[in-house]
Amino acid sequence: MADPESHTSPLAxxxxxxxxxxxxxxxxxxxRKHQETSKTIVYVLAAAVFLSTIFLIIASVFLRAxxxxxxxxxxxxxxxxxxxTNSTNSTSSLNITMLTEVTLNNKNFGRYVFENCNAVVLHxxxxxxxxxxxxxRVGAKKTRSISVVMEIGSxxxxxxxxxxxxxxxxMEIRSxxxxxxxxxxxxxxxxxxxxxxxxTINLNLTSRxxxxxxxx
Length: 216
What we know:
Blueprint: H1 11-62, E1 69-84, E2 90-106, E3 111-114, E4 117-123, E5 126-133, E6 136-138, E7 142-154, E8 157-158, E9 160-161, E10 169-184, E11 190-204, E12 209-215
């Protein structure tokens, strides 16, 4: 008959092996969980950086406010009167009514709301006339045409001839305006912008016409 102890002694090593398996599984699970958590943090940080970059690009493009452009485009004479006193290129009186077209170009992604302002006409350093520009608005990425009636009235102006062999009397005049308004990008974001119009044009008193319009 076999010894009873011979049936129980081989069970001890098997019991020790079964105790090691759960601890190994737990360690592997914890290691895998830690790796997944680290990857999640990296993904979240990468997404945050990406979204921040996109926001900065959008803000720099859509929320940035630039100065609209105010320019004198056309001049049409409606009334023209002047008197020459002598042959030394001077005039005793000059009265002109002219209809001008002023354009306001808004390159922003928000509307530009502007206030009333005055446009002045200068010859040299002297103001010889002007007009009134009514306030209003121009939409985003739009250009608005504004009709402005300007009056010129002055006397004793020193004139020049257009050439040594020419009898045309030409005077250079300058149209200047300073406009203030706000660019409304959103309901909460708006920027105050003050712009200027500075244009020169030659007035030919002989042909009663304007030429060489230049705006800076």
